[in-house]
């Protein structure tokens, strides 16, 4: 244990994290605290306010794209064959929306939009997370930990803070997300006509088997339970044998009854649909059909297959290439489209000329991305050109080049705590994720008079030399935001 780690304030922070469910599961009977920064990241208050105003507009855009099913089929068709998983999603989408049975599901867009604040250009969207858009509860816990440290250990807190006098930016993500999902579930339940003993709304979280990121999920479930919502957890394999159709196209879960809201924390990779005990002609067919079956019922769902396609890297690339006027085709006003355009960075398609074009470009100014979700799907630096040269013509459409963002790192040294060890970082940079929640395109949250759909934030910080910054799958740490304190005039 290094000398910094032995500081009693650090040990207290670790114990606070474990005490408050700010943790990752390490085995069936143990857990470790989530990696965290000991003090918050500084942001200009006007910049944060601008981001808060922008994310509902971006959510409006993504919702409209996700409900334009002909558009999705058209623009995603070129990756058929290049990315097997998205090819299967595209086929599933076609079956849901262009088959004989009508899709009755109601879209609940529970989205996290991730930004990085470039030192020269300002904040730009890195990606839209429309499926498994988690870590909101951990974003709130990071804020609460920093508030605790500011009050309980002020000397240590100031030592590792970017400024001496800070005001933490509130982050009630658990309450906002819970209230929004609960209101959605109640609306679906009321429209179903169920009442009396069966009137308690039901929230179904579709999870991965034996995953370690369960406490973030449970914190959301607790928030819902406190609002009178019954929560249940199932894998796709379990749902394959437990779902049926009730009266008025109700989705029924064995032993539970009617389901009102479904939240997918699984379904963004092939392994989520694998069931080795089922005999199928094609891998994953049975469990993907379970997902399609849910969408044929009157139930709120995040993420619908169309939402997952709409938040793909390919659609993001196409949206960035549009003018503000072109973006109005998705129901945005011209001022809204201009605001959305401001935050959409530069993304380029990959083709047979990309390797030659890239050969004389600074390799650290670009990132090569495929369609994968989560960590491990980006290629950086000197590895980009060899990858471009190795791609076949069938692969091109599944990849894109994104201009790399270079945020200014924190001027004051920061302290990251991971697995019980504290490490000083001199070049900490942060990624900003803002949550929104809409149901059938309508915002479902309210905070201090703001009913735009904003639902809290998640900050992930990492050393600037580290490529993968995810808290769960990379070298990032959960963080929070603060502004410079201004004394009353």
UniProtKB/TrEMBL annotation:
Entry-linked Pfam families: GSH_synth_ATP (PF03917), GSH_synthase (PF03199)
Cofactor(s) demanded: Mg(2+)
Annotated ranges, domain Glutathione synthase substrate-binding: 202-310
Enzyme class: ligase
Keyword Metal-binding: yes
Keyword terms, alphabetized: ATP-binding, Glutathione biosynthesis, Ligase, Magnesium, Metal-binding, Nucleotide-binding
EC number: 6.3.2.3
Gene3D superfamilies, per database record: 3.30.1490.50, 3.30.1490.80, ATP-grasp fold, B domain (3.30.470.20), Glutathione synthase, substrate-binding domain superfamily, eukaryotic (3.40.50.1760), Glutathione Synthetase, Chain A, domain 3 (1.10.1080.10)
Pathway(s) served: Sulfur metabolism; glutathione biosynthesis; glutathione from L-cysteine and L-glutamate: step 2/2
PANTHER family, A to Z: GLUTATHIONE SYNTHETASE (PTHR11130)
Family listed: Belongs to the eukaryotic GSH synthase family.
The protein's name: glutathione synthase
Natural source organism: Endozoicomonas lisbonensis
């Amino acid at each position: 244990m290094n000398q910094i780690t032995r500081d009693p304030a650090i040990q207290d922070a670790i114990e606070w994290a474990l005490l408050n469910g700010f943790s990752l599961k390490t085995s069936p009977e143990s857990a470790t605290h989530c990696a965290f920064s000991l003090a918050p990241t500084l942001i200009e208050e006007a910049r944060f306010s601008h981001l808060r105003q922008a994310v509902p507009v971006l959510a409006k855009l993504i919702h409209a794209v996700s409900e334009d099913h002909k558009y999705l089929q058209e623009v995603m068709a070129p990756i058929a064959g290049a990315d097997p998983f998205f090819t299967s999603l595209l086929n599933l989408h076609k079956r849901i929306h262009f088959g004989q049975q009508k899709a009755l599901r109601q879209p609940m867009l529970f989205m996290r939009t991730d930004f990085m604040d470039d030192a020269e250009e300002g904040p730009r969207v890195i990606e839209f997370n429309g499926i498994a858009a988690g870590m909101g509860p951990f974003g709130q816990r990071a804020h609460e930990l920093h508030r605790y440290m500011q009050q309980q250990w002020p000397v240590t807190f100031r030592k590792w803070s970017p400024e001496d006098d800070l005001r933490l930016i509130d982050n009630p993500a658990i309450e906002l997300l819970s209230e929004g999902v609960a209101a959605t579930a109640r609306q679906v339940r009321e429209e179903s006509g169920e009442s009396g003993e069966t009137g308690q709304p039901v929230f179904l979280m579709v999870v991965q088997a034996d995953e370690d990121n369960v406490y973030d999920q449970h914190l959301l479930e607790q928030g819902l339970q406190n609002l009178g919502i019954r929560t249940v957890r199932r894998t796709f394999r379990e749902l394959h044998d437990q779902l049926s159709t009730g009266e008025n196209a109700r989705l029924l879960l064995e032993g539970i009854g009617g389901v009102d809201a479904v939240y997918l924390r699984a379904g963004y990779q092939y392994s989520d649909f694998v069931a080795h005990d089922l005999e199928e002609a094609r891998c994953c067919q049975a469990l993907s059909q379970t997902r399609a079956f849910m969408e044929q019922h009157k139930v709120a769902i995040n993420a619908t297959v169309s939402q997952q396609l709409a938040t793909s890297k390919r659609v993001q690339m196409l949206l960035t290439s549009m003018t503000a006027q072109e973006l109005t085709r998705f129901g945005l006003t011209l001022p809204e489209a201009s605001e959305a355009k401001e935050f959409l960075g530069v993304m380029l398609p990959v083709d047979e000329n990309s390797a030659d074009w890239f050969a004389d470009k600074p390799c650290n100014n670009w990132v090569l991305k495929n369609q994968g979700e989560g960590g491990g799907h980006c290629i950086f630096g000197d590895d980009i050109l060899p990858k471009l040269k190795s791609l076949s013509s069938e692969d091109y459409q599944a990849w894109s080049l994104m201009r790399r963002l270079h945020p200014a790192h924190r001027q004051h040294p920061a302290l990251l705590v991971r697995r019980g060890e504290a490490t000083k970082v001199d070049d900490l940079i942060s990624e900003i994720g803002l949550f929104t929640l809409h149901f059938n395109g309508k915002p479902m949250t309210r905070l201090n008079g703001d009913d735009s759909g904003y639902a809290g934030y998640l900050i992930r910080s990492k050393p600037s030399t580290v490529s993968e910054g995810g808290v769960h799958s990379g070298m990032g740490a959960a963080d929070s935001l603060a502004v410079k304190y201004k004394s009353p005039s």
